[in-house]
Amino acid sequence: TQLLEQSPQFLSIQEGENLTVYCNSSSVFSSLQWYRQEPGEGPVLLVTVVTGGEVKKLKRLTFQFGDARKDSSLHITAAQPGDTGLYLCAGPSNSGYALNFGKGTSLLVTP
Amino acid sequence: DAGVIQSPRHEVTEMGQEVTLRCKPISGHDYLFWYRQTMMRGLELLIYFNNNVPIDDSGMPEDRFSAKMPNASFSTLKIQPSEPRDSAVYFCASSFQAAYNSPLHFGNGTRLTVT
Fold it and tell me: How far apart are CA A34 and CA B94, in angstroms?
């Protein structure tokens, strides 16, 4: 199993602050996906990164795939309470047909 | 599209009882996945199907767990007999293609509590 380590595990910040969360592995991935999960719901896809060094932006969220395709980061600018949730990174399993998930970063943004 | 539909949303049962979780995937999706989520272990893949055929069940904890997909629009995950350590949120997800090429669409999960 290709393990994905996410850090930090928990993050509590105030509205307006910036933050970065990380997803690291010793394995090379053909792609990585980021999901956000809100309480009582299933994870929802935010973005897929495919190319080493790729940067994708989704409003105030910036995703980067490492050059070696072993790691990824998510940066949130001017966090808002609506950003609160569990952020999960996921990569294809060895077979490529399923996804393995990291344990996630639980983010709390307070007004 | 209604998305992936799971039932029940909550299930409370006593140790030793049989539990059946149900899932209706998104129409046209060829892959169906069952995951289990706990604080300690995160999201764990239990089993997945392609075109109704089980492909990899290596994540199923033990023989007490079984999953079926009798047709393209329905799948079940059964635990018999249930144990307190099975308490978790169980998610069903579907995708149009294999995960390396297609995102997963999750249901809202079934929260299982075994007392």
Answer: 16
CB contact under 8 A, B99 and A43: no
pLDDT of residue A2: 67
Which residue type, as a one-letter code, is found at position B68?
Answer: K
Task: Find the distance separating the first CA and the last CA of chain A, reported in whole Å.
Answer: 39
**Euclidean distance between CA atoms A111 and A20, whole angstroms:** 19
Which residue in the block uniquely carries the two structure tokens 């299930």?
B11
Q: Of B33, B98, B108, which is closest to A96 when you measure between CB atoms?
A: B98
Q: Report yes or no: A89 and A4 within 8 Å, Cβ to Cβ.
A: yes
Q: Which residues of B touch A51 (CB under 8 A)?
A: none
Q: Residue with structure tokens 């393990």?
A: A3
Q: What is the 3-state secondary structure (H, E, C) of A26-64?
A: CCCCCCEEEEEECCCCCCEEEEEECCCCCEEEECCEEEE
Q: Do B43 and A101 touch (CB under 8 A)?
A: yes
Q: What is the pLDDT of residue B73?
A: 96
